[in-house]
């Protein structure tokens, strides 16, 4: 018999993430006087070393911070190279359709698509600048002190966890770029051509060198110094488009999170180019309906609301610095009511509306002063582009895969643009008071996971751990619906969903359903914390 996890109750501070060593790094920072932001950064930096298939130094970062009075959002996503154009991509790929990926709704993508590997989808890494910018605004310990555990695990090695080893093996099974410019990946990230096994010790001293440079320069070496110059030379030598000028031009952006009401609560996400709007729209649609007691009706409504949210997100979300994104219109109560009216008792294939114009790791932390952090970072799709800078031990992300090649789409690939982004941190409040941070990683699964986690919390009154333990469903495209075996075990559920037109498959691969963490403020003080049971999740506190 499998026993569910129990929620962690912590009186002072807490950390929850997808790897125990990273959670321990964050907790150590809390215990030596750091705040929740310091702890989040130590955790995030350590995750690049202990979970490299899911995130790396060459990835992006998004965060929501509750400072005790209000929420702050940080978009630390990088932009495409200034030299990159749609015409260059079409020429390089021969205009041949690539395999559609989750960022664009999987099989719904049509026509040529951005490639997933090699230099073409590489965008400027935003994570190192994001670490620095979060620290500059909120941190209290010296920036370099937050790198201690990560550097140690990279230099001396660490035993690979069971979940990470499985993710590593799945990632290596995917096609990789070939050629002289891509041999460094195998040297750094394979053991005799394979993934490390659970418990096998893995070292990356080159990444330790990079982390030291970032730590002691406040990330300047990454964007304007030694690392930037090495990236420039490597790209020029191997057919890349990234330049030292692109790195020097990078900036993070502080943004105001956006929200919808859901049954007396406010659910917060970051504005575009992330896909958080899909989750908010789905919850806004569901908020106008009574909670369904019937499990078939409940899942059906959630799935159909998520489809509506994705239809709009894939049609309208783009870099707001380069295109007009109707964020306010997509969340307008009148527009949500109109979308709600499209729901029926049958599985549908919704299209985007016309509103009024206006591979990933997640962690959450809290401290004794009430500061809370919701942070997510990623290279995307299992080791990102698989382009590795020789001598520096990290892979560059492939976030450019999220661009479109349709010249009329607001998210069309182009120079110095941020692509549609899958990674989204979440936060829950009630009447303006903080409940806490949450997130569910996993590409196209993320908004769906947010909807299911919020519903389990608000509708069912579950604590964070119980909400994360709850069985999940996953919609990818069309009328195909995957459900976990524990959900399928509910009497009549699968048959009821099939009767409504859903093409239901029971799937037992945990990674399909995403990995999440959540942390709520306890009414009597302290914290109630949950960690993902489907992977090596860890919730620690003191």
Note the main attributes of this structure.
542 residues; 35% helix; 7-stranded antiparallel β-sheet; 19 strands; 19 helices; alpha+beta
Fold and architecture overview:
This protein has 542 residues and is of the alpha+beta class. It has a domain at 14-253 and 361-402. The protein has 19 helices and 19 strands. It has helices at residues 20-31, 36-50, 86-93, 127-138, 148-156, 162-172, 183-189, 205-217, 220-224, 226-238, 244-248, 276-287, 295-316, 327-330, 333-340, 445-458, 464-469, 485-488, 493-499, and strands at residues 8-10, 14-17, 60-66, 71-76, 158-159, 201-202, 253-255, 258-262, 265-269, 360-366, 372-378, 426-430, 433-441, 473-475, 480-483, 503-506, 515-521, 527-531, 538-541. The protein has a seven-stranded antiparallel sheet. Strand 10 (360-366) and strand 11 form a beta hairpin. Helix 1 packs antiparallel against helix 2 (36-50) and helix 2 (36-50) runs antiparallel to helix 4. The longest helix has 22 residues, at 295-316. The radius of gyration is 22 Å and the shape is globular.
Topology:
Blueprint: E1 8-10, E2 14-17, H1 20-31, H2 36-50, E3 60-66, E4 71-76, H3 86-93, H4 127-138, H5 148-156, E5 158-159, H6 162-172, H7 183-189, E6 201-202, H8 205-217, H9 220-224, H10 226-238, H11 244-248, E7 253-255, E8 258-262, E9 265-269, H12 276-287, H13 295-316, H14 327-330, H15 333-340, E10 360-366, E11 372-378, E12 426-430, E13 433-441, H16 445-458, H17 464-469, E14 473-475, E15 480-483, H18 485-488, H19 493-499, E16 503-506, E17 515-521, E18 527-531, E19 538-541
Parallel strand pairs: 15-16
Antiparallel strand pairs: 1-18, 2-10, 2-19, 3-4, 3-11, 4-7, 5-6, 8-9, 9-12, 10-11, 12-13, 13-17, 14-15, 17-18
Helix pairs in contact: 1-2, 2-4, 2-5, 5-8, 12-13, 12-15, 12-16, 13-19
Organism: Micromonospora matsumotoense
Protein name: Gamma-glutamyltranspeptidase / glutathione hydrolase
GO molecular function: hydrolase activity
């Amino acid at each position: 018999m499998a026993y569910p996890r129990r929620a962690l109750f912590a009186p002072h501070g807490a950390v929850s993430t997808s790897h125990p060593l990273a959670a321990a790094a964050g907790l150590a920072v809390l215990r030596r006087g750091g705040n929740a932001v310091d702890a989040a950064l130590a955790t995030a930096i350590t995750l690049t070393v202990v979970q490299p298939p899911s995130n790396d130094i060459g990835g992006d970062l998004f965060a929501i911070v509750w400072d005790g009075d209000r929420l702050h959002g940080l978009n630390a996503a990088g932009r495409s190279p200034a030299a990159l154009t749609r015409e260059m991509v079409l020429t390089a790929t021969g205009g041949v359709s690539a395999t559609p990926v989750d960022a664009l709704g999987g099989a719904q993508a049509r026509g040529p698509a951005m490639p997933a590997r090699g230099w073409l989808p590489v965008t400027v890494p935003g994570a190192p600048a994001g670490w620095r910018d979060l620290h500059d605004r909120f941190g209290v310990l010296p920036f370099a002190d937050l790198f201690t555990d990560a550097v140690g695990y990279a230099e001396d090695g660490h035993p690979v966890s069971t979940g990470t080893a499985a993710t590593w093996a799945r990632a290596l099974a995917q096609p990789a770029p070939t050629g002289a410019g891509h041999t460094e990946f195998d040297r750094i990230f394979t053991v005799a051509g394979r993934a490390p096994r659970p418990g096998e010790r893995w070292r990356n001293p080159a990444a330790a060198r990079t982390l030291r440079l970032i730590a002691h320069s406040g990330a300047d070496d990454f964007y304007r110094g030694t690392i930037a110059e090495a990236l420039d030379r490597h790209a020029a030598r191997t057919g890349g488009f990234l330049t030292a000028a692109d790195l020097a031009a990078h900036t993070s952006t502080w943004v105001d999170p956006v929200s919808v009401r859901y049954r007396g609560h406010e659910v917060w996400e970051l504005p575009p180019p992330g896909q958080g709007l899909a989750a908010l729209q789905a919850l806004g649609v569901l908020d106008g309906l009574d909670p369904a007691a019937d499990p078939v009706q409940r899942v059906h409504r959630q799935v159909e609301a998520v489809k509506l949210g994705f239809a709009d997100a894939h049609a309208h979300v783009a870099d707001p610095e380069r295109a007009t994104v109707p964020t306010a219109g997509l969340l307008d109560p009148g527009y949500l009511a109109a979308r709600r009216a499209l729901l029926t008792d049958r599985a549908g294939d919704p299209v985007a509306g016309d509103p009024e114009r206006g591979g990933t790791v997640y962690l959450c932390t809290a401290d004794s002063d009430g500061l809370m952090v919701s942070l997510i970072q990623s290279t995307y799709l299992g080791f990102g582009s698989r382009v590795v800078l020789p001598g520096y031990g990290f892979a560059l992300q492939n976030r450019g895969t999220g661009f479109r090649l349709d010249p009329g789409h607001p998210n069309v690939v182009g120079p110095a643009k941020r692509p549609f982004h899958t990674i989204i941190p979440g936060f829950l409040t009630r009447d303006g008071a903080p409940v806490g941070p949450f997130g569910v990683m996993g590409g196209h699964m993320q908004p769906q996971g947010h909807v299911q986690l919020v519903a389990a919390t608000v509708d069912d009154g579950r604590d964070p751990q119980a909400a994360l333990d709850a069985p999940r469903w996953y919609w990818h495209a069309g009328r195909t619906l995957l459900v976990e075996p524990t959900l399928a075990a509910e009497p009549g559920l699968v048959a009821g969903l099939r009767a409504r037109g859903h093409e239901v498959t029971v799937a037992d691969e945990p990674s399909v359903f995403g990995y999440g963490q959540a942390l709520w403020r306890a009414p009597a003080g302290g914290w109630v914390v949950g960690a993902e049971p489907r992977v090596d999740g860890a919730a620690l506190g003191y």
